[in-house]
Amino acid sequence: MFHSYAQFTSFLVLCSALLSASGCVQRAESDVVVYSALDEEFAAPILDAFERSTDQETSVIRKFDVESTKTVGLVNRIIAEQDAPVCDLFWNNEIMHTVRLQKLGLLEKRSWNVDPGWPSDMIASDGTWCGFAARARVLLVNTDLIPDASEYPDSVADLADEKWKGQCAMARPLFGTTATHFAVLREIQGREATLKLLTQIRDNAVILSGNKQVAQAVSSGTVAWGLTDTDDAVIERDLGRSVAIVYPDQSSDQPGTLRIPNTIAVLKNAPHSVAAGLLADYLVRPETEDRLAMGDSSQLPLFRDAKFPPRVLPETPVRWMQADFENAADDWESWASELNDLGLGK
User: Fold this and answer.
1) Which residue of 26, 37, 172, 218 lies most exposed, with the fewest beta carbons within 10 A?
2) Same structural domain for residues 254 and 273?
């Protein structure tokens, strides 16, 4: 049929053109590729609902990384793919790495449909990401070991108090939300003061691999209390363990309790930018926050129209820390090196 390779190549080009004209490419344009650091059990039902809500056939192609690499693996993949992006939308639950992508210029600037007066620390200064559905950094107390509520620790700084030596715990401050927490504190109280505090904590507290391990150590009575996240703390309370959740640093001379939000960001030069924008708008809304508040992780809504109060919140209002996540992400390499030198790395 074909008398030369050139004729065969021309035939393939013609077939591709006909397929494009027939609408096959248009259908692919309605798909959207999501990299999600939020656990699949929480994110997948919401992404499924988005697929059902669209007028056209839209497939959400999902990439969830394994627990051992989690956010870092997804972020490194986005960086590696920056010259030919595969991901359209990044759903992260550790904001520091989202800011890292922002500073590398890999995220698209856009407008977000949020309430007037949205907290300034929950949206990028350049519009490249938006935070919602937060977790809080809390103290989890074993009430069998500390039965008197008046004796509960009430500040992150109590991790350095010698009266709790060997009886309190924290995750390593080079990873996850603990890394974000102390990078934010560095911006509030200064580099030297934060390094001094971390040195004291290193010598006083039990340093564990992660927040989940801290929560489990508290509930099992291995330590009396620890610094962890609300999603790990509420699981232990829901299991009926003898624990209490304390929102730290609530006095007027203290910085308040830190919230760490989920973030949504559309990738710059995303292959399916229109579909990614539609999904971004679908995710950042009160209905999504309600679903995450009702779930096992009991995440904290930011929208005033959110209807479901998460069970992890106390009855009294919480004083939230005003965090500068963008400045906290600056100079991360040298900061991490200093923490390693203090013996707070692996």
Assistant:
1) 26
2) no
Q: What are the CA-CA distances from residue 192 to residues 198, 266, 343 (Å)? A: 10, 36, 16
CA-closest candidate to residue 326, choices 124, 71, 127 = 124
CB 289, CB 261: distance < 8 Å: no
Establish if 321 belongs to a structural domain. no
Give the helix ranges, DSSP H, for 134-190: 176-189
Where in the sequence is the domain holding 108, given as residue range(s)?
5-134+261-309
**Looking at the structure, do residues 301 and 152 belong to the same domain, yes or no?**
no
Q: Are residues 270 and 302 in the same domain?
A: yes
The residues with which 228 forms a beta bridge, in sequence order, are 138
| Co-location of 12 and 83 in the same domain | yes
158's CB contacts (< 8 A; 6+ apart) are 139, 164, 168
**Is 325 among the domain residues?**
no
Model-level pTM greater than 0.90? Answer: no
Query: Is the same domain home to 130 and 266?
Result: yes
Name the E strands within the chain: 32-36, 60-64, 89-92, 130-142, 168-171, 206-208, 225-229, 243-246, 259-266
Let me know if 271 is exposed, middle or buried by CB neighbors in 10 A (0-12, 13-18, 19+).
middle
Verify that 242 and 172 share a domain, yes or no.
yes
Distance between CA atoms of residues 330 and 286, nearest Å: 31
Please write the tens of the pLDDT for every residue from 180-191: 999 999 999 999
CATH number, position 117: 3.40.190.10
pLDDT in tens, 262-321: 999 999 999 999 999 999 999 999 999 999 999 999 999 999 999 999 999 999 999 999
Query: Any idea how long the chain is?
Result: 346
Q: How does DSSP assign 208-260, residue by residue?
A: ES-HHHHHHHHHHTSSSEEEEEHHHHHHHHHTT-SEEEE----STTS--BPEE
DSSP tally for the chain: helices H, then strands E: 13, 9
Asked if 70 contacts 35 with a C-beta cutoff of 8 angstroms, the reply is no
| 184 & 219 share domain | yes
323 φ/ψ angles, rounded to the nearest 5 degrees: -105, 140
3-state secondary structure of 280: helix
